[in-house]
Specification:
The chain has 395 residues and is of the alpha/beta class. It contains twelve helices and 23 strands. The protein folds into two domains: 243 residues, Ribonuclease Z/Hydroxyacylglutathione hydrolase-like (Metallo-beta-lactamase, Chain A, 4-Layer Sandwich); 142 residues, Flavodoxin domain (Rossmann fold, 3-Layer(aba) Sandwich). The mean pLDDT is 95.
């Protein structure tokens, strides 16, 4: 399918309505996704990115039918990750002499994944440009660590389109392709979930890169990311959101995350939630059993929160693996400026709360002194302590 998006620019990607998992099993897809590739037909015909390997044959056949492979003059690879480059080896079997423009780091990632194929790989850096005819050119912008070292964006003059790759995207299948044809509530949710789980560790790079792009003085009338909706209606709205999200984003929310063996730790979690509701009715409180809830959804809620409470029973001097894995995931996402507290039950030695406090501190949270450590099952005293922990987290 070839869909015009503006001028002589078309979308030639793949709408992946059935996709359920991404990045292994770390990111759960709930509203489909897309692998967005673009075709620019000016004096030169240029393909920007490809699609994931499972869809390579359909992608190449579509290009053969819609434009004719012999008419493609150059390829731009904004990023070497497999969901963008997976169809490239299949395509290059028929385009062996066509140059591929990418960053120096992308040469490493492409050759690392697919071997040295003798492709004509031409490296570019920020500010480099290439004429594509009809008075238009591409300007390349390195997007290092957004979210791989090899990432870049490509700007098309004249049409003022920023092909932003993984920045400003969402895992969201939008049949109409554009943000103004999408369910706006789902769009914002999926954009934030994408940022929290994929780009948040690189927030300092996000801020610097947005400042750099603004300093280049490039008018932007459309932002075409590699996943999800294309931003044609007020495209800078997502840039403003990224600036906000990158600056230690917090809402008035407390997220409680736990797992339990015999429901004692669950009772404490619910006690903390009830106490928080009494203390601060305007605060949004959310509770997740991390062995049952989706972890990418949990991380999006942690991203929104000003504080989290994490609970586990003690298990052989440690905590449940579901909880330790969740905290480990939190650590990898490098949340900033958030409080955290720990709670849990025990029957023998009771190290679980101390383990959680240590791991939460190592994950970058400001850990409060207050905690709940309940022997066997929580009693009235333990549930009263929930009030003190909730106060400390909400203060």
């Amino acid at each position: 399918m070839k869909e015009n998006i503006k001028g002589n620019v078309s979308w030639v990607g793949y709408l992946d309505w059935e996709l359920q998992k991404f990045h292994g099993d770390d990111f759960t897809i709930t509203n489909g996704s897309s692998q967005n590739a673009y075709l620019v037909e000016e004096g030169k015909t240029v393909l920007i990115d490809t699609v994931w390997t499972p869809h390579r044959s359909e992608f190449v056949d579509n290009l053969r039918k819609e434009v004719g492979l012999e008419n493609i003059d150059m390829v731009v690879m904004n990023h070497g990750e497999a969901d963008h480059s997976g169809a490239l080896p299949e395509l290059m079997k028929e385009l062996s002499d066509v140059p591929i423009y990418c960053t120096a780091n992308a040469v490493k990632s492409l050759e690392g994944q697919y071997g040295k194929k003798g492709w004509d790989l031409r490296t570019v850096k920020t500010g480099d440009s290439v004429d594509i005819g009809n008075g238009k050119k591409f300007v390349f912008i390195e997007m290092r660590m957004l979210h791989w070292p090899d990432s870049m964006a490509t700007y098309l003059t004249g049409d003022n389109i920023l092909f932003s790759n993984d920045a400003f995207g969402q895992h969201f299948a939008v049949g109409g392709l554009f943000n103004d044809t999408a369910d706006l509530c789902l769009l914002e949710k999926e954009a934030m979930r994408y940022y929290a789980n994929i780009l948040n560790p690189f927030s300092s790079f996000v801020t610097k890169k947005i400042d750099e792009i603004r300093s280049m003085g490039l008018p932007i009338d459309m932002i075409a990311p590699s996943h999800g909706a294309i931003w044609r209606d007020e495209p800078m709205q997502i840039v403003r959101k990224y600036s906000e999200w990158a600056a230690g984003y917090r809402e008035d929310q407390l997220t409680i995350v736990y797992d339990t063996m015999w429901e004692g730790t669950a009772a404490i979690a619910h006690g903390i939630a009830a106490a928080a509701g009494r203390i601060s009715p305007e605060t949004m409180v959310k509770v997740f059993n991390c062995s049952k809830a989706d972890k990418s959804e949990i991380m999006a809620e942690v991203f929104k929160s000003k504080a989290v409470a994490v609970g586990s029973p003690t298990v052989v001097g440690d905590v449940l693996t579901s909880v330790s894995g969740t905290v480990r995931y939190m650590k990898s996402l490098k949340f900033k400026g958030k409080k955290a507290g720990a709670f849990g039950c025990y029957g023998w030695s009771g190290e679980g709360v101390a383990v959680l406090k240590k791991e939460l501190a190592e994950a970058g949270f400001q850990v409060v002194e207050e905690s709940i450590r309940s022997m066997w099952k929580p009693d009235e005293k333990d549930l009263a302590s929930a009030e003190q922990l909730a106060k400390a987290l909400l203060k």
